[in-house]
Amino acid sequence: MTKTKNAGMEDKEVNVEKKLLALYELQQIDTQVDKIKIIRGELPLEVEDLEDEIAGLETRMEKFTTEISEFESVINEKRGSIKESESLISKYKEQQMNVRNNREYDSLSKELEFQELEIQLSEKKIKEAEIRIEKLNEEIEASQEHLKMRQEDLNAKKDELTEIVAETEKEELELREESKKHEETIEKRLLTAYKRIRENARNGLAVVHI
Fold first, then answer.
1. Which structural domain range is residue 196 located in?
2. Could you give the residue ranges of the DSSP H alpha helices within the chain?
């Protein structure tokens, strides 16, 4: 009876040992995968951040270009208004030469004064728009220079990431396949606990050698 009991305990200890060994081997494989991720480092995130920054710069320049077009429309509109006012001024001056009384002359003088003020206002709007266009062009030029540098950074990071991925991709796929096979040999309850501990552990270690 004692021998049977001892044999059962020994079998139980062997089973526990096998389970722990299987978990430890799985941990070793997953740790190698983690190391590959560390080798890649923050490159994927850096690439993503640079792509977002470049997209933002492009959107900004598109906005500046749209604003320039709007100011150019204002300039064209005001230049048209100036020509119209100049035409009216010529017309009113000619009419002043043929007025029949002071009342008509004063009325035409007021119209002339109004059109001259309209010209001054239009010229002011044109000047303001031209100044704004100049500043926007400066902003576009600065953004283009910044965009060029960021694009160069992005290309360099992408090349670096591609190189690292090419060097580690095959190894990572083999390790992941091996990890998957090991998982199939471990009971679901233990595997769930193992994964939960790994997720919460900063170093990804759920099973360690003692």
1. 13-200
2. 2-40, 43-96, 102-184, 188-200
Higher pLDDT, 85 or 5: 85
Token pair 């560390």: residue: 38
State how far the alpha carbon of 140 is from the alpha carbons of 31, 67, 147, in Å: 48, 11, 10
CB 157 within 8 A of CB 49: no
Residue 209 is given by DSSP the state: -
In angstroms, the CA 191 to CA 201 distance is 15
Whichever domain contains 114, its CATH number is: 1.10.287.1490
pLDDT value at 148 more than 90: yes
Main-chain phi, psi angles of 185, to 5 degrees? -95, -5
pTM of the model: 0.62
- Main-chain dihedrals φ then ψ at residue 27, nearest 5 degrees: -60, -40
Q: At what angle do helices 188-200 and 2-40 cross, to 10 degrees?
A: 40
CA angle (150 as vertex; 144, 156 as ends), nearest 5:
140
* Position 7 in a domain: no
| Residue 70 counted as domain residue | yes
